[in-house]
Design a protein that fits this description.
Blueprint (H helix, E strand, L loop, with lengths): L9 H21 L7 H21 L1 E2 L2 E2 L10 H15 L11 E2 L23 H8 L5 H20 L24 H6 L1 H11 L11 E2 L3 H5 L2 H11 L7 H8 L12 H7 L9 E6 L6 H15 L4 E5 L10 H13 L3 H13 L7 H14 L4 E5 L17 H12 L5 E6 L3 H7 L5 E5 L6 H15 L5 H15 L3 H5 L11 H10 L4 H13 L3 H16 L6 H7 L20 H12 L3 E4 L11 E4 L2 H8 L16 H20 L21 H11 L8 H11 L6 H7 L3 H8 L2 H9 L14 H7 L5 H9 L14 H8 L2 H9 L14 H7 L3 H9 L14 H7 L3 H9 L14 H7 L3 H9 L14 H8 L2 H9 L14 H8 L2 H10 L13 H7 L3 H9 L14 H7 L3 H9 L14 H7 L3 H9 L14 H7 L3 H10 L13 H8 L2 H9 L14 H7 L3 H9 L14 H8 L2 H8 L15 H8 L2 H6 L10
Helix pairs in contact: 1-2, 1-3, 2-5, 3-5, 10-12, 13-15, 14-15, 15-16, 16-17, 18-19, 19-21, 27-28, 27-29, 29-32, 31-32, 31-33, 33-34, 33-35, 34-36, 35-36, 35-37, 37-38, 37-39, 39-40, 39-41, 41-42, 41-43, 43-44, 43-45, 44-46, 45-46, 45-47, 47-48, 47-49, 48-50, 49-50, 49-51, 51-52, 51-53, 52-54, ...
């Protein structure tokens, strides 16, 4: 379709731009932001600045257009688009009080094309968006407006990028934009510009005076993508792997459903149960019981049904870094910030106060707690924790399961968090979990998984024995299920026995003779390995060793080289390389030797054989191998508690093999090559980057290992230069790992102690920072002239590193060598601040003795006292106060040490600060006092102490929230009661009209609601948007709260300013039980919003089938249309909700009814690619030839959008050469213009009109 509209004069753009600036300024002058939306305010200001910068860059200044304006403005199409975008921004202010229209976002995140599903102001099309913004207490409209402005500004930037992006300053004369800028042809050729053009053409400017916008999650526009990526990087969020997706795909339909019938799951999920404390559920079971697949199923259910954030993490020893349980916490935070604006604000603020390149574990734990306090009812799922119990703490930087569970318990204390842990029943896990308040446990039994075993067994047999009749397959599968004793892995390992050439009796005998239980099954595999020739046996053991103990799964090419290396090799034995890495090689030389103990998996559907990955078949295989693989130079530890020693020895063995491989000159040939499939060098990167990680074994020095390292680092060796060019310097690597003897040898051979890496870290930094603080290495580096004052790129000295990690002896040595206690990092952190933050008392004392200034603050105004108070380091606080720390100093946010201690619940610290004169009434820049912070986070004893000291219970923050609001919102019942006893006003409302009853009702805190009602809280009061407590509770599905409010006289018919009733809100969000109770209490199913949307519209649009059924049973009108002519059938068809469409049609919905633009349900479904809906609409008589007011037919739209299967269906019903009455173009021309080749091939050539 060609752009429509008047020719826009160039000169007029300058005046329009000026009007835009005025409109934006007017909006800015009265905007108000809540406590959870201050980051949104900053985003608005930033986008306003971007908008002004764009105008200057394209040549608009002082209401005039420069003669040297951007040449793209000379293009009529581009200028027309700019005019439309600016017009929308100009009208931005006029829509400030209106709801911003929303539109579905394409799956690829781009703007819709010209005929995609149109927006609709009455239809909230993204339930997740609704869920994420519901808690903003009526500020959704304002949030949408700010996000919409950001979208418009981004459109302008993409349409005509500012000059800075080209390295040209605005205002320069004679600018040359180059051929890459938008010219006449590029406007049509750029997909992005084409999508913006199509998007703008679809806008109806008469609707609320402005442009319709995308309905996107809050984070998509409030924070740039690069900022979110930077936050994930700072969090140290691990790269995703395929464990979850693989488990979802592995699961057979209908399996794992049994868990949903167990009452323990329902109880754990109940909001009433978790309203006052965290809930820990542990599902455990034996190896091979399908726990990971079951866990993935639960994650899938939680993610689709819960309205609060859900995050998961699947631990596995198969992936590097995935056996560290603290990585789960990092991943959880990253997932929650993508679902919650409040969580994003918390993380972003913490990041601004922490200037390290990456968040430390201590920071992550603190941050995790802050997120949980800001976002109630989060659900976290952790699978595979038992795989971490096998990782030695010394080898994993102090990580242990017990420590992780202890810190996790502290983080979730007094929150409404739900945690599900799925693992085997390991003693370390039981010890940690049983200490949790709210702990419950479910042990999976063979009976639980019996039906799933049968289903899985059938699928295996049906696949392997396709040539057998049904009774035979059924008999075999039943026998396998009977023998497996609940273990799916046992069934998997039977695949090799199921050979179609054997008869039924032979197959049954094979199964009967297979040992029961995984260990016995592994024994049979091992016995076969024992019978191999010595050469094959050695190769098999080596394959299993690398598969079991490598830091990540190796590729076929990598492991092919790795298994050729042994202690007797003087060079890489290329003569033993295979002729080709192909399927035959994998089958005979890898799988054929190891049997069912390992698996070879492709990285993609078309993976080359050499790039496929080697995995153990199951984690239990690794544990089995620890008792079986011969350990060189040591007796076999078969005792369960000593298997970790075997693992340490195996890792030492792999370290030496890596070093042996690296000593081969052949390996370093063609160094620049990064092709890991090149035989002869494919294993190099793994060996060079992983040998020292394998070598970390609790400070032990292996003589052979030291010799191998010395050989690698020998400057006279032929591999020295190649190794040095590859990565870290040898002295840095040895210092980091504390290998003293290696350091000595390197220094004797002239290693440079001053060489720093790209971040400015020297060997002295490395040794000072290590988790163990390598004192002897530090000493020898200093003796050899290492500079104790040298700083990294961010200003960190070795003293910073040692102080931060509490290495007292290292700190003493550094100070004795001249380290400066006053040197601050670029963020203002001194060594004293670092030590205080982490609670290292003795380090703090010695730094103070050496003259450290207790009053020096960071760039953010944080003093050492702030840090120690915030983290609850009582003894450090006392020492700092004794040395003159100022108890009243506030940071840049106005927060005092007392505020920080109160917020985090550090009672004893609070007492000490108050005794030292801390002012209980000082508020931060947002108006929060220590009492606000403590009440918000539920720290009862701190609240009582603050009140006893004179804290004012009635003081409100800048948003009008009192301590009572905060306690009510977060369900802290005991704090809430104490505040009431002191005289807190139960009727006080915030600046948006929210009372404590609103807060408690919205978040489902039943007991708080009951108390409020008992003492006279007004159940009918509405906020500034017309939301009542009943409305808020209904929208969020808090059934018991809804019941109590109704019993107390809440009006079921009261609507908000947009005409949304509690019934509408509940229907919109799929709250079935709430819908039922509201209808029982007289809610009118026919009442429509200001836009004409009924509850049936909303439920249909969002695909809530059961709600739709209930509404229809009560008498909802299936044919009612909104102000734009949209019926429930239209909404359901547009969004592809097939089952809802069926029910509406069965209830008499008119398949031919069109909206005010002539769009029928068939047109909407065709446009949006809803194939199954299209089929059923056609079955019910939908007319394929009916055209819209613009003359578009369903076939036109499907062709334009490239929906090939729908085109096929429609072409079977229509003359391919048809043209609508108002158009001279065919479906072929639209497909051609949009570049949909597959559709072009399907449609016959158009002999009448050229599509080009």
């Amino acid at each position: 379709m060609e752009p429509v509209g008047l020719t826009i004069g160039i000169a007029g753009l300058a005046g329009l731009f000026s009007a835009c600036l005025d409109a934006v300024q007017n909006f800015d002058s009265y905007k108000t932001y809540g406590r959870d939306s201050r980051f949104l305010a900053a985003r608005f200001d930033a986008d306003k600045e971007r908008f002004e910068r764009w105008g200057q860059a394209v040549g608009i200044k002082d209401e005039k257009l420069s003669d040297t304006h951007h040449p793209a403005l000379d293009d009529q199409k581009t200028r027309s688009l700019v005019h439309k975008l600016l017009s929308s921004i100009r009208d931005f202010d006029s829509s400030a009080d209106g709801a911003v229209e929303q539109q579905p976002l394409l799956t690829d995140g781009k703007f819709p094309t010209n005929q995609l599903a149109r927006p609709h102001h009455g239809a909230p099309t993204d339930s997740k968006w609704r869920k994420a913004t519901w808690a903003l207490r009526g500020k959704t409209k304002r949030t949408d407006q700010v996000q919409s402005f950001a979208t418009l500004v981004q459109c302008l930037f993409e349409l005509i990028p500012p000059d800075e992006a080209k390295g040209i300053r605005p205002g320069h004369e004679g600018r040359d934009y180059g051929p890459t800028h938008l010219q006449d042809s590029s406007v049509d050729e750029s997909p992005w510009i084409a999508e913006i053009r199509a998007f703008v053409l679809e806008v109806k400017e008469e609707r609320r005076g402005g442009l319709t916008f995308l309905c996107t999650p809050a984070l998509s526009l409030t924070v740039p993508d690069e900022t979110k990526r930077a936050l994930r990087a700072w969090l140290g969020c691990p790269y995703p792997n395929d464990l979850y997706d693989d488990s979802i795909q592995k699961r057979l339909g209908g399996t794992c459903e049994w868990i949903l019938t167990r009452s323990i799951i329902r109880d754990w999920l109940s909001p009433d149960v978790s309203a006052f404390t965290s809930q820990m559920l542990w599902i455990n079971g034996p190896a091979g019981f399908g726990k990971t697949v079951l866990c993935a199923k639960l994650v899938e259910i939680f993610s689709s049904s819960l309205q609060t954030p859900v995050a998961h993490f699947f631990l596995s020893s198969k992936f590097e870094g995935r056996d560290d349980p603290f990585m789960a916490m990092r991943s959880w935070i990253a997932q929650v910030i993508s679902q919650s604006q409040a969580a994003l604000d918390v993380v972003h603020k913490r990041r601004q106060t922490q200037h390290e390149q990456g968040a430390t574990r201590a920071t992550i734990v603190k941050l995790f707690r802050e997120v949980l306090q800001a976002v109630p009812f989060c659900t976290f799922v952790l699978d595979g924790l038992d795989e971490c119990t096998w990782v030695e703490e010394a080898r994993n930087n102090g990580v242990s399961v017990v420590r992780f569970l202890d810190q996790l318990q502290q983080a979730v204390a007094d929150t409404t968090t739900r945690i599900l842990v799925v693992s085997r029943n390991e003693p370390e896990i039981r010890q940690g979990l049983t200490q949790y308040p709210g702990f419950s446990e479910y042990t999976i039994s063979p009976k639980d998984v019996r039906a799933d075993n049968i289903a899985y067994s059938k699928s295996i047999v049906n696949n392997k024995l396709r040539n057998k009749d049904e009774p035979t397959r059924l008999s075999i599968s039943q026998k396998m299920a009977d023998r497996c004793n609940g273990q799916f892995q046992w069934l998997t390992m039977q695949k090799s026995l199921l050979r179609g050439g054997r008869n039924k009796k032979q197959l049954e005998r094979d199964i009967d003779e297979t040992p029961a239980g995984l260990d016995h099954l592994y024994d049979r595999n091992w016995e076969k390995i024992e019978t191999l020739r010595e050469e094959e046996k050695a190769r098999t053991v080596s394959l299993l060793r690398w598969a079991a103990f490598s830091l990540r799964p190796l590729t076929v090419c990598e492991i092919t080289e790795a298994v050729l290396v042994n202690d007797d090799c003087d060079d890489l034995p290329v003569d033993d390389m295979p002729d080709a890495i192909d399927d035959e090689y994998i089958e005979s030389e890898i799988l054929g030797l190891c049997g069912s103990l390992i698996e070879v998996r492709g990285t993609s559907l078309e993976s080359a054989p050499g790039s496929r990955m080697i995995h153990l078949a199951h984690f239990s295989v690794k544990q089995y191998l620890l008792c079986k693989i011969p350990v060189q130079g040591a007796g076999l530890h078969v005792n369960e508690s000593l298997r970790r020693s075997n693992e340490a020895i195996e890792n030492m063995t792999l370290a030496k093999l890596c070093l042996r491989y690296l000593s081969f000159q052949r390996v370093w040939d063609c160094l620049p090559t990064k092709d890991n499939s090149r035989m002869g060098t494919s294993f190099r990167d793994y060996a060079a980057g992983s040998w020292y990680q394998h070598a970390i074994v609790d400070g032990a020095e292996d003589t052979a290992l030291v010799e191998a390292m010395n050989a690698l680092f020998d400057r006279s060796s032929q591999t020295w230069d190649a190794w040095r060019r590859w990565g870290r310097t040898p002295i840095y690597a040895a210092s980091m790992n504390g290998h003293l003897e290696v350091v000595k040898v390197l220094l004797e051979k002239g290693a440079d102690v001053s060489v720093a890496n790209t971040n400015g870290w020297t060997p002295l930094h490395s040794a000072s920072t290590s988790s163990n603080g390598h004192l002897d290495v530090v000493k020898i580096l200093l003796e050899k002239g290492a500079d104790v004052l040298v700083a990294t790129n961010d200003g960190r000295t070795p003293l910073h590193s040692a102080s931060s990690n509490g290495h007292l002896d290292v700190v003493k040595v550094l100070l004795a060598s001249g380290a400066d206690v006053s040197v601050a990092k670029k963020n203002g952190w001194t060594p004293l601040k670092a030590a205080s933050s982490n609670g290292h008392l003795n380090v703090v004392k010695i730094l103070l003795e050496k003259g450290a200034d207790v009053l020096v603050a960071t760039n953010d105004g944080w003093t050492p006292l702030h840090s120690a108070s915030s983290d609850g380091h009582l003894e450090v606080v006392k020492v700092l106060l004794e040395n003159g720390a100022d108890v009243s100093v506030a940071n840049t946010n106005g927060r005092t040490p007392l505020y920080s201690a109160s917020s985090n619940g550090h009672l004893e610290v609070v007492k000490v600060l108050l005794e030292s004169g801390a002012d209980v009434s000082v508020a931060d820049t947002d108006g929060w006092t220590p009492l606000n912070a403590a009440s918000c986070n539920g720290h009862l004893e701190v609240v009582m102490v603050l009140l006893e000291t004179g804290a004012d219970v009635s003081v409100a923050d800048t948003d009008g929230w009192t301590p009572l609001h905060l306690a009510s919102s977060n369900g802290h019942l005991d704090v809430f009661k104490v505040l009431l006893e002191i005289g807190a006003d139960v009727s006080v409302a915030d600046t948006d009209g929210w009372t404590p009853l609103h807060s408690a009702s919205s978040n489902g805190h039943l007991e708080v609601v009951k108390v409020l009602l008992e003492i006279g809280a007004d159940v009918s009061v509405a906020d500034t948007d017309g939301w009542t407590p009943l409305y808020s509770a209904s929208s969020n599905g808090h059934l018991d709260v809804v019941k109590v409010l109704l019993e107390s006289g809440a009006d079921v018919s009261m609507a908000d300013t947009d005409g949304w009733t509690p019934l509408y809100a509940a229907s919109c969000n799929g709250q079935l039980n709430v819908v039922k109770i509201l209808l029982e209490k007289g809610a009118d199913v026919l009442v429509a919003t200001n836009d004409g949307w009924t509850p049936l519209h909303s439920a249909s649009s969002n695909g809530h089938l059961e709600v739709v059924k209930v509404l229809l049973e009560i008498g909802a009108d299936v044919s009612v249309a909104d102000t734009d002519g949209w019926t429930p059938l239209y909404s359901a068809s547009s969004n592809g909700h097939l089952d809802v469409v069926k029910v509406l049609l069965e209830s008499g919905a008119d398949v031919s009814m069109a909206d005010t633009d002539g769009w029928t349900p068939l047109y909407a479904a065709s446009c949006n690619g809803q194939l199954n809906v299209v089929k059923i609409l056609l079955e019910k008589g939908a007319d394929v030839l009916v055209a819209t007011n613009d003359g578009w037919t369903p076939l036109n739209s499907a062709s334009d959008n490239g929906h090939l299967e729908i085109v096929k269906v429609l072409t079977a019903r229509v003359n391919l050469d048809h043209k609508s009455p108002r158009h001279s173009r065919t479906a072929l021309s639209y497909a051609a213009e949009s570049g949909h080749e597959s559709v072009l091939q399907l449609l016959p050539a158009d002999n009448h009109v050229s599509p080009f």
